[in-house]
Amino acid sequence: MEKYPKISDAEWQVMKQLWNDHPTSANEIVKKLEKTVSWKPKTVKTLINRLVQKKAIGFEKQGRSHLYFPLVAEQEIVREESRSFLNRFFGGTLTPMLASLIENRDLSENEIKELKEMLNKATKEVKER
Q1: Residue range 24-33, pLDDT digits in tens
Q2: Please, are residues 69 and 52 in contact by the beta-carbon 8 Å criterion?
């Protein structure tokens, strides 16, 4: 299994911008984040540098600026974070996590339908193995 970088909640905000639009400059990331967070530009640039050090993002130099781009796919990080969450809180077992979510939330008919469809698809895939 490939090792993915641990990304903090703040770094996640920067990654979301890059997953949505890349390559892009640090100044563009700052402008986009100004709409949702009250960080100073220096804070955003520090987060960008951390992500470069973690090898979550890369850059290419273009003139005097750098254009940043993700080195890991959003789906890969979500999968890894989900696995980590499942292991940390539910001993790696999916059933208790789903039970907890279902018991502590009022599900709509549509959500129940979607869950059933996912389970039916998973059942079919298991049988085909």
Answers
A1: 999 999 999 9
A2: no
